Amino acid sequence: MKLATDWKDYTILATGDGYKLERWGGVVLLRPDPQVIWGSRRDLFADPSIHAVYRRSEKGGGAWEYRKKMPAEWEIGYKDLRFKVKPMGFKHTGLFPEQAANWESMRALIEGAGRPVKVLNLFAYTGGASVACAKAGAQVTHVDAAKGMVERAGENARLSGLAGGIRYIVDDCKKFVQREIRRGNRYDAVIMDPPSYGRGPGGELWKIEDSLFPFVQLCAEVLSDAPLFFLINSYTTGLQPAVLSNILTLCLRGGSVNAYEVGLPTEEGIPLPCGAGGLCTWTN
After folding, report:
1. Which residues, other chains included, contact 109 with Cβ-Cβ below 8 Å and sequence gap of 6+?
2. Distance (Å, whole) CA 114 – CA 137
3. Among 103, 7, 82, 20, which residue's Cα sits nearest to residue 54?
4. 92-97: long-range contacts at Cβ-Cβ below 8 A with a sequence spacing of 24 or more?
5. For residues 89 and 66, what is the distance between their CA atoms, to the nearest angstrom?
6. C-alpha closest to that of 93 among 6, 29, 37, 8
7. For the ranges 90-99, 151-160, 200-209, which has the lowest average pLDDT?
């Protein structure tokens, strides 16, 4: 498992009974987590430090319950990166801290390349990976269909001291990649964080079990003649790292493939699984 161990502003305090208790800077949140199927050592809902709890609904979804006065949004830092955090719909905060483990790998690859690197970040959300890669010196194209998330990515870049280095695109990822292939635009690295399920702006159905393999095949066509890396990240419960390894091996030529679980340490001394990653790297 690849753990994000270098956080100072983020900590998982406790887990159990389907929830995780987290400290985000000076704010403590209690949120559901599908991986936490073990029992809690204590009543997490009774913790006096909690500012807000995300309560699940039997009808699906849920809502935030606020217990203490807290900012509507605030900043946290990871090394030389800074991000805006805000409780949003469906339990999200606008940041996935476990991805710091992948940020470290990508930054090392970019900084060690010894050449200009063009990165394409697909399903790029609020730009954690985009900011990390741009900080390492890459030219990043950030693509997401949600305008609000792309705007938040721009805010995160500015908070991290980036005046340039990232091009923001609000578009369907598949359609954008198809156009880039026709235009002859190529990238040295591709990052993708695809959803489990969704629909495109034209009603196109995305189901990761059916859509991921052909999409990776398509994205292979946008790689340059001297690719650096290709990263797939997935939060889909039950999608094993070996599945990502097989997809990368079958879709990409050459390169070294490594697949792994991604996780976070906890103050309980156990790691919290947070999905899977698959990384293909090339030596040029």
Report:
1. 189, 228, 229, 281
2. 10
3. 20
4. 93/24, 93/29, 94/125, 94/126, 94/152, 95/126, 95/128, 96/125, 96/128, 96/274, 97/4, 97/7, 97/10, 97/264
5. 14
6. 29
7. 200-209
Q: How far apart are CA 196 and CA 90, in angstroms?
A: 14
Q: What is the pLDDT of residues 51-75, one digit of tens each?
A: 999 998 877 789 999 999 999 999 9
The answer to whether the CB of 3 falls within 8 A of the CB of 101 is yes
Q: From residue 273, how far is each of 57, 129, 230 by CA, in Å?
A: 24, 19, 22
Using CA atoms, how far residue 84 sits from 4, 159, 170, 268, in Å, is 19, 8, 20, 27
**DSSP state, residue 122:** E
Rounded to whole angstroms, the Cα distance separating 244 from 261 reads 11
**E strand or H helix at 67:** none
Cβ burial, residue 138 (10 Å; 0-12/13-18/19+): buried
Output the pLDDT for position 201: 65
Residue pLDDT, tens place only, 2-29: 999 999 999 999 999 999 999 999 999 9
Distance between CA 29 and CA 52 in Å, rounded? Answer: 5
CB atoms within 10 A of CB 151: 13
> Helix, strand or coil for residue 47?
coil
Give me 210's structure tokens. 């059916």
Question: pLDDT-based confidence at 90, cuts 50/70/90?
Answer: confident
**Arithmetic mean of pLDDT, 82-86:** 97
Helix and strand element counts for the chain (H, E): 6, 17
Residue that has been written with the tokens 């070294």 in this structure:
256
